[in-house]
What we know:
The chain is α+β, with helices and mostly antiparallel strands. The chain has helices at residues 2-5, 16-28, 34-43, 45-51, 58-67, 70-88, 158-161, 179-187, 253-261, 264-272, and strands at 99-110, 125-136, 139-149, 168-172, 191-195, 202-208, 216-224, 231-236, 242-246. Among the domains are: 2-68, no CATH class; 177-264, no CATH class. A 9-stranded mixed beta sheet has the order 3-2-1-4-5-9-8-7-6, sandwiched between helices. Helix 3 (34-43) crosses helix 4.
Amino acid sequence: MIDHAQIDKYVKKLDVLTFMNTFIYAQLKNLEKLQRISDTIKRKKTVQRLVGIESISKSQLSRKNGDIPHEIFQVILHHLIQKLHQVLGPKKTDQVLGKLHLIDSSTISMCLSQYEWADFRETKSGIKMHTSIVFCDGISYPNKMILTPARPADETQLDGLIVVDKNALHVFDRGYFNFKKFDAYCDDGIRFVTRIKSNTVIHVIEELPVDASSPITRHAVVKIGNMKHPLQLVETIDSEGISIVCNDAKVSAQEISDLYRNRWQIELFFSNG
């Protein structure tokens, strides 16, 4: 790709691979500013050997970052995700729960004057990284990522993050709440767990028994809003009381509660990234 795009045609020092080595090192060492990267390379011989250059200015790093087409990094990301799936994908999964696909978004604020296309707020721009990660046997790894301007609602990207796989169970938060989509997923056999909004209209079909010693305070079969398909409703004691729904009748109330708590794995993924 580098040769085809001729990005390094007239480059003598900071070619694309050297640039990538430099920023991988900066990411691993939490070097958040270009000046820190420049200073670290200049000061440390070991870093010079790792990245392949003895010195580089922050302005050179900035210019190179702007010169490299973003499609190259996108292809690399998808390639690495494929490799992860080859290594981690074949693991045996629970027959009922399957692989958990955790879905969430993270917003990155940016300077309004330089990124006017990234519609967010009147005073700043931003992008939203919609991400699906697979969580299986205590290991999490990325599955899909969609970048959009920050303003559009999360639910607009939900279809793109859903995996059409009977062994996948999707877990996502209230930002992706959409009755029409939920009914469509039920029709297509796509399983999901999500938290409902406080103003959601609930139509009770059947109240189910709960264990008095359990943190679960309610278990019922319900319809919500204008949905045509029934769901399991679980209310559980947490730092705040939460109400969770699931469209898989085979999953127990305790499993539904535990599944939603596993959603925090994607928060850890964002924070570690």
